[in-house]
Amino acid sequence: MKICFIAWERFGVGGVSRVLTRVMNALAREHEISVYCLRQPPLENAYGLNLDRIRFFHHEMSLYEKIRRSVMDRLVTRTPLFSSAAGARAYALLRYTRAFKKRLANHINSQRYDAVIFGSGFEDSLLLALVQPRLSPGTRTISWSHAAYEDYFGFKGPHFARYFRHALQRFYHRFDQIIVLSDHDRENFEKRHWLKTRRIYNPASFTAAEHSTLTSKTFVFAGSLSSHKGADLALEAFEEFSRRNGEWNLHVYGEGPLRPWMEGFIQEHGLQSRVRLHGSHGAMEREYPKHAVLLFPSRCEGFGLVQIEAMSCGLPVLAADIPICRELIRDSGAGRLFPAGDSHALCAAMLTMAAEDLAPYARKAREQEPRFTLERIIREWNEILRGENS
Predict the structure, then answer these.
(1) Membrane spanning segments where (predicted)?
(2) Statement to judge: residues 91 and 175 lie in one domain
(3) What pLDDT, on a 0 to 100 scale, did the predictor assign at position 187?
(4) Structural domains counted in the chain
(5) What residues pair up with 32 in beta bridges, in sequence order?
(6) Whole-angstrom Cα distance, residue 100 to residue 131?
(7) Domain CATH number, residue 194
(8) Measured between alpha carbons, how far is 131 from 67 in angstroms, rounded to an integer?
(9) What is the phi/psi pair of residue 247, to 5°?
(10) Domain check: are 336 and 380 in the same one?
């Protein structure tokens, strides 16, 4: 099959780029894969996109098109201009120029793709929905959501939520399939918006070569140092924890906007000997086994790849009580949950886990590995591409 992925990514460091690269490289072993990038190179290619087998096209927006899109994105989140059915139609008309949509449709038709997948940004896949009527008959269109349902209907604010509800009703039924990352999201999109939806988990980034011995007495946080990922919660909770437990330490992997604040917080509270900021690390499969418990305090999350990475290395997970963590952690018995956004509750849970026998959690964590193998995930993608079980 000829398959095209449409993406905004430059394929630099980040969870979406990593998953896209892994899925496309695997599909390229049996299909003809292309990427249509909506940004100008240089291609960063942080995770080894196989450019010997994957064709790469790009067409960046003009300056006018970028400004127009940026203005529309500000208006849709900050004003009620597009919060009605008529407003959603107006937004769709104004966000992308006719020429930009025509270029994309012409590319898809000229290449005669069997399937087109919008792979980055569910709200941005509106673009593919808008060009779908111009595509050749038989071209399957698929939207792939990497964010949580609550990200669209909560975190982006009430104006965007009202707009998006109308946009889903008006445009997203044009897709042959919508892919989401959790059963929670699938149920919401199916029951509340009557969309044809299927859940496919993201594949693990690696196969664990070794497992944690659970003896290190260290918590680990891995991810962007941002409020969204809860890096502030992890540090605040550990500061409170450190006043009641003098043995366990915290190791942090990642970079992000909160790093200066975290460095100041560590200095202010005298945690230099208890907290270590490692920065970004390219081989976490070697780092996870050095630690005993993963902290996953994200305020909102579509999937959270670090959870399944750490679990494959035998780490119990202490995670925020958000839908994807209930599905991956609570339901599997691979760890504990705490009320999302509550650093005091996180501290209490850390104290509990530090005193517990972690072996049962670790055993359950390792048992989940077959759910996220690349082979299993690609088999599910092939079913979708062939129109089976959708």
Answers:
(1) none
(2) yes
(3) 96
(4) 2
(5) 2
(6) 10
(7) 3.40.50.2000
(8) 21
(9) -105, -40
(10) no
Nearest CA to 69 among 101, 113, 21, 26?
101
3-state class percentages of the chain: helix first, strand second, coil last, to nearest 5: 45, 15, 40
pLDDT in tens, 309-359: 999 999 999 999 999 999 999 999 999 999 999 999 999 999 999 999 999
Which stretches of 269-390 are DSSP H helices? Answer: 284-287, 305-312, 323-325, 343-355, 359-367, 374-385
The predicted model gives 86-91 an average pLDDT of: 96
The sign one gets for the Cα dihedral 76, 80, 85, 87 is: negative
The confidence score (pLDDT) of residue 175 equals 97
- Of 238, 372, 369, 371, the C-alpha closest to 293 is 238
Let me know: does 280 contact 255? Beta carbons within 8 Å: yes
**Residue 213 falls within a domain, yes or no?**
no
pLDDT score of 390 more than 60: no
Residue 193 tokens, joined: 């918006």
Among all chains, which residue has been given the structure tokens 């062939």? 386
**DSSP H or E run through 142:** strand 140-144
Look at residue 68 in the predicted model and tell me its pLDDT: 93
If asked whether residues 381 and 360 sit together in one domain, one would say no
28 and 118 inside one domain: yes
Task: Answer yes or no: are the C-beta atoms of 295 and 221 closer than 8 Å.
Answer: yes
Note whether residue 210 is domain-resident. Answer: no
Q: Are residues 182 and 239 in the same domain?
A: no
Q: Give dist(CA 67, CA 323) in Å, integer.
A: 35
25: containing domain: 2-202+373-385
